[in-house]
């Protein structure tokens, strides 16, 4: 008797993304399992952020099939998708500058599933945020703001966490601290999609990868079975 192959937690099939007449993503397919980190690699304009936005229903037009936890979500609005268990740590963090650290964090709980991570658990992960909980977000450093953005996403209690360039503009020590958290998040049963231009760090964190080039998957596979030269060639067309 054949073994039953488990269904991916998130499956994207034949996805195309349009902004007006411009097609940013072409017939793209990929998947993420529970407790798996998947890396999406590519140059600027390769379609990485468009892929994440399409999953969350934040693009002008999309074609193809997006299945999450067994349900087709392609026709849902963003708030419904978040409540089903998909959260985004956006590029540039996108905090509310005038709100306090704690007010920004509580927004994650408000828009999410309202189960799972608690505010105190987030403060245990990021003790510095508890000290600064009453400060406006605009007074934080870039690394501290990224902690808030990640904490806010976790408070939504995601089954899938979409991370868009979480290391962008941060000091190496802060980046190392953030990446050290990813396996701990994964071990809670959360799938992670990691969009990064930092190829080495991204591959080290992930089990599988997809290279995007001009909106198409140019190379994919387990991270242990690929060399840096192949990744560079398929990501940048060189």
Descriptive notes:
The chain is built from 9 helices and 10 strands. With 238 residues, it is an alpha/beta fold. It has a 6-stranded mixed sheet, sandwiched between helices. Strands 2-1-4-5 form a 4-stranded antiparallel sheet, with helices on one face. Helix 3 (101-111) runs parallel beside helix 6. The protein starts with 9 loop residues before the first strand and ends with a helix.
Short description, anyone?
Helix content is 35%, strand content 27%. It is α/β, with parallel strands linked by helices. The longest helix has 15 residues, at 172-186.
Unreliable sequence segments: none
What do the pLDDT scores average to?
A: 91
Structural class: alpha/beta
The overall strand count is 10
Radius of gyration computed on alpha carbons: 17 Å
Please bin the fraction of helical residues. 25-40%
CATH level-four homologous superfamily name of the domain at 1-85 and 159-171 and 191-238: P-loop containing nucleotide triphosphate hydrolases
Q: Describe the biggest sheet?
A: 6 strands, mixed
Distance between the termini: 46 Å
Order of helices and strands: EEEHEEHEHHHHEHEHEEH
CATH architecture of the domain at 1-85 and 159-171 and 191-238: 3-Layer(aba) Sandwich
Q: Strand-residue fraction?
A: 25-35%
Topology:
Blueprint: E1 10-19, E2 22-32, E3 37-41, H1 48-55, E4 61-68, E5 71-72, H2 78-84, E6 86-89, H3 101-111, H4 119-125, H5 127-131, H6 142-155, E7 160-164, H7 172-186, E8 191-196, H8 199-205, E9 208-213, E10 216-222, H9 228-236
Parallel strand pairs: 3-8, 3-9, 6-7, 7-8
Antiparallel strand pairs: 1-2, 1-4, 4-5, 9-10
Helix pairs in contact: 3-6
């Amino acid at each position: 008797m054949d073994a039953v192959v488990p269904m991916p937690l998130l499956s994207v099939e034949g996805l195309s993304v349009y902004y007006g007449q411009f097609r940013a993503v072409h017939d793209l397919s990929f998947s993420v399992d529970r407790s798996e980190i998947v890396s999406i690699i590519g140059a600027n304009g390769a379609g990485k952020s468009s892929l994440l936005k399409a999953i969350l229903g934040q693009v002008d037009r999309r074609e193809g099939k997006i299945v999450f936890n067994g349900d087709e979500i392609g026709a849902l609005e963003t708030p419904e998708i978040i409540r089903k268990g998909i959260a985004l740590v956006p590029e540039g963090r996108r905090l509310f500058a005038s709100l306090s650290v704690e007010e920004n964090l509580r927004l994650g709980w408000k828009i999410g599933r309202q189960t799972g991570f608690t505010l105190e658990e987030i403060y245990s992960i990021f003790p510095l945020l508890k000290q600064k909980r009453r400060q406006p977000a605009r007074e934080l450093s870039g690394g501290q703001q990224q902690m808030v953005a990640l904490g806010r996403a976790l408070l939504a209690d995601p089954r899938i966490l979409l991370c868009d360039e979480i290391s962008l503009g941060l000091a190496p020590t802060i980046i190392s601290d953030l990446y050290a958290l990813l396996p701990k998040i994964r071990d809670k049963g959360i799938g992670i999609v990691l969009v990064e231009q930092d190829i080495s760090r991204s591959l080290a964190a992930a089990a599988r990868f997809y290279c995007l080039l001009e909106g198409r998957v140019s190379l994919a596979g387990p991270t242990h079975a690929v060399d840096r030269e192949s990744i560079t060639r398929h990501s940048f067309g060189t």
